[in-house]
Design a protein that fits this description.
mainly alpha; 2 domains; three-stranded mixed sheet; two-stranded antiparallel sheet; 16 helices; 5 strands; about 60% helix
Length: about 425
């Protein structure tokens, strides 16, 4: 049946009015959100709470997000373009999370003196604050109980992978653990560590273009020794075109070289952050950063080490699983400490149950989780989302890593649930 010209005209007119209305909402959101100067998410929960604004500013924020919530309900979502739909979903996502934050901030007493040697569980509404931070760091649809169970499942999965590699080595478990402590598995000079990372860089860069888009447009990544003692609790970190490996007072484990480079450099953080500059991103997207996506991506690409030409030996691959076990244990531990209120002793016993002869790392990580609640969950949860999507994509005809990754990275980092 053909529509009469007058009906077509009315439909196009209504569509145009609806889009103009949404464009105005987009501009309003960017302008007013920016003007509110809402503090950025800090990795340390004490810094987050200390940055809470005064009552009048909080009320302004609440008024703004309630207005956005009301206006979004009036938007004909099905009539929006692709990127308008993305902006709509991000505005909705941010509105829900910010209203949850505001409700907690309205109950907060800014005169309270905080101590980041104590977990967030110990403060007023500590469990609610942790549940909120878990959503903010990871994904808005998660809850502590489910994340705890996810951590337990990942521990068992990773230990199974490690056992398989131990059997491949031909060593009995006890002998295997002793063998891994041999001095041949460690570097004692900065120059040797630097050379090892540069070697892995060459190997990975040869293969990366076959698996990931835009590689030839990504600027070269620099590799340097870290010099920030405040970040000594992490094996490496990335910042502004350079990834830094930490080497202070202990031998550097050779089994960390491959996965650290892949995680921090290409195709990890350096690559993923550069992608944001190469693709189209809206003004609303540019307002936000989603660590569940970013850290999840860094952990996800570690699983492609063999495809990238790394993990030449079972010991290189074992090194990836050694750290993945730590990440898995941290997921459950983070919830235990910050939501269930575990004592240091209970947390240490949980660590020792699954990780042998690394008590010093355990103590360090427990202190980290008390200061940085929810942050450690981002790696495992995000990686799991990407791996599940990869498994599904591989079942499709004409699967290609490059096209799959181009699809995943189409909008840069976005909330994981919007993938």
């Amino acid at each position: 049946m053909k529509l009469k010209p007058i009906l077509i005209f009315l439909y196009i007119t209504q569509l145009s009015v609806a889009q103009n209305s949404f464009n105005q909402l987009q501009k309003l959101f960017v302008k007013e959100y920016t003007a509110l100067e809402i503090p950025n998410l800090q990795i340390n929960y004490v810094q987050n709470l200390n940055s809470i604004k005064n009552k009048m500013d909080i009320e302004k924020q609440e008024k703004f997000f309630l207005k956005i919530k009301k206006n979004l309900k009036q938007v004909p979502f099905q009539n929006l373009t692709e990127y308008e739909k993305l902006d709509y979903q991000i505005m909705k996502y941010e509105t829900v999370l910010n209203l949850e934050r505001i409700a907690l901030e309205k109950q907060w007493d800014t005169s309270i003196k905080l101590d980041d040697n104590k977990s967030i569980y110990t403060i007023k509404n500590g469990k609610k604050w942790y549940a909120y931070l878990l959503k903010r760091w990871v994904n808005a649809n998660v809850n502590p109980d489910d994340i705890f169970q996810f951590g337990l499942r990942e521990i068992e999965f990773v230990k199974t992978q490690m056992t398989q590699l131990q059997k491949k080595s031909g060593h009995h478990k006890i002998n295997f653990d002793k063998f891994l402590k041999d001095s041949s598995f460690f570097y004692f000079k900065v120059s040797d560590i630097q050379k090892a990372f540069e070697k892995t860089k060459l190997l990975v860069n040869k293969k990366a273009d076959t698996l990931f888009p835009y590689i030839n447009k990504v600027q070269d990544v620099k590799i340097k020794k870290g010099n920030n003692p405040s970040l000594a609790q992490v094996p490496a970190y990335y910042n502004n075109g350079t990834f830094f490996y930490n080497y202070f007072d202990k031998p550097f484990n050779k089994r960390q070289i491959d996965w650290i480079y892949i995680h921090e450099a290409i195709p990890g953080h350096h690559y993923q952050f550069m992608i944001n500059n190469l693709i189209h991103r809206t003004e609303i997207q540019a307002l936000f950063w989603y660590p569940g996506f970013a850290e999840g991506w860094g952990a996800y690409v570690e699983f492609l080490g063999k495809e990238l030409g790394a993990y030449k030996t079972i010991y290189d691959e074992y090194g990836k699983w050694e750290w993945d076990l730590i990440r898995s244990v941290r997921v459950a531990l983070d919830v235990g400490i910050n939501y269930y209120g575990w004592s240091d002793i209970k947390a240490q016993n949980f660590w020792k149950k699954y990780i042998i002869n690394k008590d010093d790392i355990g103590l360090r990580e427990i202190e980290r989780m008390k200061r940085w609640p929810a942050q450690v969950v981002t790696y495992k949860y995000g990686a799991n989302i990407f791996l599940n999507k990869l498994d599904k994509a591989k079942k499709e005809n004409e699967f290609s890593y490059k096209s799959f990754h181009k699809h995943l990275l189409k909008y840069g980092d976005i909330p994981l649930e919007l993938l």
